């Protein structure tokens, strides 16, 4: 049932139980972020000791809230949580987010069993406990921290709140943005598979980034992934690869990581794109969200930095893409294109000292000759006018151009924001750009490189 | 002769030939950066068409400069360069930097031979041509672009100007800083080996980061590296690893990359720490500059983010370090340390929701038990007071603590600057932190992991 989490993501009213005026507490941060994030539904702070919090009337209990309640966010000691959730369900709430820790991860299986009983008996859908909440931009609902309001195409589902916050933080800094982050916590109810199903059907989400320590129900997870991948790429970082990592994962979320070769085999079989580390998870999500899928393995590298071009070639060849030698026809056409006199007319095409229009002319020729499937533009110096140029190229060639911008100081930072606003992915190094291109290529081929 | 490049780095006067008031030109940027970089020697713009440039009197020729001249920086068309260098040598200059391109890389071997003749006949030491200049902070001499004035422990020697600028840009953004960047260009004279020898003897430089496409004289390079490594780590990113990369390197700097297995073997044999990509070059340089060398392979991971801790363990075990299980004695001591109630007292030590002092108490216990050789502190949320805490730890345990700070928003950015100012290395992900620690470990063991 892909839509049964609408009660969570599309909530029109939310209570924060444990809201407080103390700015050092999570109960404050979450209420503040719901308000600052632009949520347009009703918001009810619940705290028996306060009259008003952050300018809103506070209520002593969930039951005393006037009017309807869709979602309850709980930030109180573990022993009190089940009672509050029951009260919320009694009031008609259909979803709960439990931020509070102190359950299974602290040996309190009994308290966790109580939450499971609430789910069974009331039908309330619960995220957590022991989690960092959710942020869903289409509903302007940031029931999490830090505050993130940059809209983009990436949904992050994570067994680690910090991993979700880190990806979101990068997406904010770069102007790439998110549709959602969900921190899974102990998963008494809502699990990674429910969320894959939900974001598969979410029109704002173009790619799903998953951080997993283990899957609760492997078969169901694989089934959901198989159904999603024809429509939407999924990128996964799975930890617990080594013996020590598996031991640590077992302590963290009591996940049974399983043998890594098994998970890796599943990824290859079903077409999950596996990231080797945290930055790659972000890069692959970015590339697969922004670039056309499965076009082909041939990359043309056009660069103002010879050294950076070589790094791109090395990485491409290492990861199964190719940077093919141009045919004599292509080279002849490049010779007619009025490129800078010292340009090296090969692949990588090294423009040396150049302007934005030199990149444009070069790519024009290559596109005309169908010389490549993807285009990597490397700016190795400030390139004024980069955004306009790449946008024009994109109109002509579709989403087949990625940018690596480096060594560009403040101009680089500004152009990166503009390029991301225009939907063009920018990477901090040539190697990471190749990773993003590879993910887009794999996304269209069921990961069968 | 390690000191014979003092004429370049310790110059007390510099002419910029091709200086111009046009802010779009390199001849402007370099003059402006020498001035803005705080150079205290005399500076002479040379341009026959101008009276004053950037507030300084301009001279029509090098010969017309009043007084002594140590260094000449040349940014004029290639055909004019040799004549200007001879004129500068005639005036007593002992070093030249040729920014101009249009030599060997454009097929003009004849012009390059002229420069070699100048070196032979006058003894002038030349950097370039076709390069991005040098920046040497101890002499406040930024004869390069972009302007970088952040002082730190890392000297960058690079066959790519962009690679040098990129590393310097990161070092500025993070407050880590540099001692020097040198862009080698076509190397008619000064080569990577000369510079390794120079920075080996430079007291401000604690680590050398090299980007190479090939070495001009392999034997001499290996000899210089062998002499340097007992005193100072060298980290190298060598491109041209794949067949396509070797082809591209041959086009870029006419370097003969050679078989990669040979270079890799040399690295292992002599103890050069090889980086697999551009970010790793930076991370390894940072780790080996800031952390104690060769302490041992055991890493204790202390974290507020369980997931991030697992990623660190996976990476450590993949790269030959260990995150050992703590002994019952250590666990018992941790139990007495008044850590947060939900903390998981293992390695990684997951403090969950915690304060700076919890990290301090935990590391105190571990140090007391000699439970590890290096300490990785992962902050998975804003941790107010992080810098003061890590500084106190450092006083107690020496330079054995690295930090990975992620998901911390603005607090993270501020604390990162403070931590780097205090000499404590900070990495953006757990995996990259492990890379930095590994580099410091290898630096003390001759790379024999």
List its traits:
Rossmann fold; 16 helices; 7-stranded mixed beta sheet; 19 strands; 449 residues; 18% strand; alpha/beta; elongated; homodimer; 5-stranded parallel beta sheet
Q: Just give the CATH class of the largest domain in chain A.
A: Alpha Beta
Assigned CATH superfamily of the largest domain in chain A: Succinyl-CoA synthetase domains
Query: Total strand count of chain A, please?
Result: 19
Give the overall average pLDDT of chain A: 93
Shape of chain A: elongated
- Identify the biggest protein-protein contact and residues per side: A-B, 69 and 69 residues
Helix and strand composition category of chain A:
alpha/beta
N-to-C CA distance of chain A = 32 Å
